[in-house]
Amino acid sequence: MQLSKLSYYLIRGLDKEMRAWDAYIGLDDSVRDLLTSLKAISELQNPAVRERPWTQLIEATKRKTFLRDNFTVSLVTGIDTTLADLLALDLHRYEDEVRSVVYRAVREVSMEKTLRELEATWATLEWGKEEHARTGLTWLKASDELIATLEDNQVQLQTLASSKYVAHLMTDVLDWQRRLGLSDQVLALWCEVQRSWSHLESIFAGSCTDDIRQQLPEDSYRFDETNANLKELLGHLLLKPNVISVSTRPNVLDDKHRIDSQLQLCEIQIVQLNSLVGLLGGDLSPNDMQKVTTLCTIDVHSRDVVARLVQPKVESSQAFAWQSQLRHRWNYTEKDCFVNICDAQFRYWYEYLGNTPRLVVTPLTDRGYVTLAQSLHLTMGGAPAGPAGTGKTETTKDLGRALGMLVYVFNCSEQMDYKTCGNIYKGLAKTGAWGCFDEFNRISVEVLSRRCPNSFHLGRSTSASKALLYNGRRDSTSAYSRYVRHYESWLRWKNRAPREFEITLLTMRHDRS
Q1: Given a cut of 50, is residue 509 above it in pLDDT?
Q2: Which burial class, exposed, middle or buried, applies to 415 when counting CB atoms under 10 A from its CB (0-12, 13-18, 19+)?
Q3: Distance CA 349, CA 210 (A)
Q4: Would you tell me which CATH number, out of the four given (1.10.10.10, 1.20.58.1120, 1.10.630.10, 3.40.190.10), belongs to the domain 284-392?
Q5: Taking Cα atoms as reference points, which of 397, 404, 320, 395 lies closest to residue 362?
Q6: From CA 454, how far away is CA 60, in angstroms rounded?
Q7: So what's the pLDDT on residue 488?
Q8: At what angle do helices 95-124 and 170-204 cross, to 10 degrees?
Q9: 475 strand-pairing partners
Q10: Range 501-508, long-range pairs (CB < 8 A, 24+ positions)
Q11: What pLDDT shows up at residue 425?
């Protein structure tokens, strides 16, 4: 390489009159091509460039017919391969192809390393063990580390699967996606089975259960049979608690589905003994039915929250398990309702939202509430992300219901321009309502570039309770705060309980301009 460069500089140092000669031009071109070829050969010395990339390169250059008869790809890095063999490929004509092959080889080696690390990780990951307090039965337990690792690795595999360089590794990637997908299903189903069993075991097998067993003989027999099958399955799984081994065990998912379905049948019968479910089975109007259903939904979530507080023996009101819950309280000093979650606090907005169903709150929903509430507390917005149909929009709307806030959902499209977005922001500023922009990624980049400063100034004006100019007109970002102050003054003047005047507040909100 150094000799070639020296030759190049020697040629360039000849008399300028010689540069018009054909011999000079031919020699100059030959040296340039040699330098390019040597640079390409140097790049191909990358350890990531193995047999398959070399095969792709030879096919791309279409120079195989110029190689000596005994030249093979397997010998390309061997001692029998000469510089003349590599120069015969005329790599100076295929500089882009060489660069592409080398880059692809590096990316493939990186993906292979990721798969090796993933395999090493899951070879040692095992289910945790937990003893049931009353029965002493050893249960499988998914630790937070296991759940986090599972989620991270699934994202990694999804990224690998979407890469354009994954072709020769696609079989391995799909196989790992299948195994981790099974692990995810088994984990979720196993947690559900344990929850159902813990609830039913104290009913059918605890103390003072004779009366229930007499009233529900078929369900008692069903639980006893399911309990025996569950303990048998648990015994097999505890012998080899590796997560992948458990998840890929033949028929393990079917067995757990069958056990879960039997437990669910028992739970249904128990719940039917409850007076609230008896009310649901009565002759109720659609509105009353919706009210009771909403109460059941909220009550089930409250029960789950209490269970999560009891299990780790939470005793302090400052514990995160309690602070992270959405909590409503009445402030007798300010005579108003407040909503707290973590260190965020909001006034209840008293927006009449109708007799609508509530979202079934899951631990993921709770985490979404915490994140969105903290963002609002800092006078910023939120951007829930995830696959379609996972409840991003519904979670935002349900948080608005919990705060008594009207939420407008806008389905974004390519036709939305900056004026449309400006009018939406203007309306939201006037009404004090929330805006949920669904399919936000459909808006063109040009429109988004206009919306960014709009959002910035709107957030600053909101935090400072100032007015702002929108499309040449002045709008107040705290319009609703005037009605809140008016309402509070009225309450102090009347000196009565606030519930008597909630309907008046609602009338004020709908009458405002």
Answers
A1: no
A2: exposed
A3: 50
A4: 1.20.58.1120
A5: 395
A6: 51
A7: 47
A8: 20
A9: 468
A10: 502/350, 505/350, 506/350, 506/351, 506/352, 508/483
A11: 82
